[in-house]
Design brief:
Length: about 300
C-alpha cells in the first residue's frame, strides 16, 4: 500500500472500525495479500490507482493458486469494504471491486455435529485429562454455541454475574451483543482456569483476553500480550474429540452446530435459538440443524394410520 502519512492514517482508522481483534487481523492479512500481489505485478501502482482489471487479475491469481472459493470471496469482500471506506473519505470516487464476479461457493464438506452421546463422552474425557485451559475452552464451546472468533475475543470484563447467574457477553458477528448464561459446570471450569493463571504468576485483568497462549510475555510486557491463536483452538477441540473416540471430521464450528441441533431436538423454540446464537434469520438456524433429517425425528413416526396398520 502507499506509505504516505495520509494513507497510513486512513488505514489506521479503517481497522479501528472493527471491535474484534480477530477481524482486524483477518482484514489486515487480506489487504496485505492483495497489495503484495499488486506490488509484484504492477509496479508503482498506488492504492488510488487500482482498477477493476487489477482486482480481476488478483482473483484469477488466487484461483490458479487453488484458493477455495470461500477464501477468494472473503478476500474480495474485504477489499471492497476497504474501498467503500476510501470513497466515504473522499479518497476514491469508485470501488474497483464493483461488478467483479465472485466464484460460485459450494460446500465441499459439511460441518459435522456431535450427538448428545458423543458430547457426553468428550466431557468425560476433559474431566479426566484436560488442563484448566483446555477444559474451559471445550466446555464454553458446547455450553454457548459461540463462534471460534467470538471465543478468542472474550475479555475478562465480559465474564460477570447477572441476577445471580454467571454470564459472558459476546461481541458477535454483525455488531450484535449476546449475553450467554453459563451452566455451573462451565463457570466452574472458567473460574478454575482463571485461578490457575493467577497461581502461575499470570493474573488476568479485566481488559485482558481470557484465553491466552502459554508462551505469552509476563505482565511487565503487557502491551505484547496476545489472545490465543485460532490454530491452537482447533488443536484443542479436535484433540479431545479424538480422545473420546470421535473419528469423523470435526472443528470448533461443530460445537455450534451441536448446540443448535441439540437445543432444537430437545424442544427449544427455533426463534429463541436463532436469537441466542446471533443469527439474522431463522432460516440460517435451520441450516445449522444437522439433526433435522434423522428418522426418529420424522413426522412419519406420528402417523396414526401407520400405527393402526402395524
Amino acid at each position: 500500500m502507499n506509505n504516505s502519512d495520509h494513507t497510513k492514517k486512513l488505514e489506521f482508522e479503517f481497522f479501528q472500525n472493527f471491535e474484534s481483534a480477530h477481524t482486524r487481523e483477518s482484514y489486515r492479512n487480506d489487504l496485505k495479500s492483495f497489495f503484495e500481489f499488486i506490488s509484484s505485478n504492477f509496479k508503482r501502482l498506488t492504492t488510488a490507482e487500482v482498477h477493476k482489471l487489477h482486482v480481476i487479475a488478483y482473483k484469477d491469481w488466487l484461483t490458479k493458486n487453488q484458493y477455495a472459493p470461500k477464501s477468494i470471496n472473503r478476500k474480495i469482500s474485504t477489499l471492497s469494504t476497504f474501498y467503500r471506506f476510501l470513497i466515504e473519505k473522499n479518497h476514491m470516487t469508485y470501488n474497483p471491486c464493483d461488478s467483479v464476479k465472485k466464484p460460485k461457493q459450494t460446500v465441499k464438506t459439511e460441518t459435522n455435529d456431535l450427538s448428545d452421546e458423543e458430547v457426553i463422552k468428550v466431557l468425560e474425557i476433559i474431566q479426566e485429562k484436560a488442563s484448566p485451559l483446555h477444559k474451559a475452552i471445550v466446555l464454553l464451546f458446547f455450553s454457548t454455541g459461540i463462534r471460534k472468533s467470538e471465543l478468542i475475543d472474550l475479555k475478562l470484563k465480559d465474564y460477570k454475574e447477572i441476577n445471580g447467574e454467571m454470564t459472558i457477553t459476546v461481541n458477535a458477528k454483525g455488531g450484535k451483543t449476546l449475553i450467554k448464561f453459563l451452566p455451573k459446570q462451565c463457570s466452574e471450569a472458567l473460574d478454575d482456569y482463571i485461578t490457575h493463571m493467577k497461581n502461575g504468576g499470570r493474573e488476568i485483568h479485566p481488559q485482558d483476553w481470557i484465553f491466552q497462549p502459554s508462551k505469552n510475555p509476563s505482565k511487565k510486557n503487557a502491551n505484547l500480550v496476545k489472545p490465543i491463536r485460532p490454530k491452537s483452538i482447533d488443536y484443542i477441540f479436535i484433540k479431545y474429540c479424538k480422545l473420546a473416540g470421535i473419528n469423523k471430521r470435526v472443528s470448533p464450528h461443530s460445537a455450534r452446530a451441536t448446540y443448535i441441533g441439540s437445543a432444537l431436538q430437545n424442544g427449544a423454540n427455533i426463534v429463541k435459538v436463532s436469537k441466542d446464537v446471533g443469527h439474522s434469520s431463522v432460516k440460517t438456524t435451520e441450516e445449522y440443524n444437522k439433526r433435522r433429517n434423522r428418522f426418529e425425528d420424522s413426522p412419519i413416526n406420528s402417523l396414526g394410520f401407520l400405527k393402526e396398520a402395524s
